[in-house]
Amino acid sequence: QVQLVESGGGLVQAGGSLRLSCAASGRTFSSYAVGWFRQAPGKEREFVAGISWSGGTTYYADSVKGRFTISRDNAKNTVYLQMNSLKPEDTAVYYCAATFGIYSDYRNYGSWGQGTQVTVSS
Known about the structure:
The protein is mainly β. Helix content is 0%, strand content 50%. The protein is built from no helices and eleven strands. Strands 2, 4, 5, 6, 9, 10 and 11 form a seven-stranded mixed β-sheet that branches. Strands 1-3-8-7 form a four-stranded antiparallel β-sheet, with no helix packed on it. The protein is globular and about 40 Å long.
């Protein structure tokens, strides 16, 4: 398994941007696919975006398609989530997770970060 640490969350106005980072430890990080998930109070954890081990394949939830971009730099053991045109409904704790293969179901992921809060004000 790999250890993951998210950063980059914060408070932003609607229409603004944030870039989240997911830093990993472990020499085999480049072998893992990574997913970003989010969880708002009282709601189930939901898939946001995923990226393959090479970065060549990406997937997005319909709710963020066209606004969010996932990318990775394996030399830096880091995955990014660029979030533009943020909406109040994007407010949640954002988590990154790693596994072999991209899945939208969070139960398929074994390694998780501690999460970073994103708050979008209207």
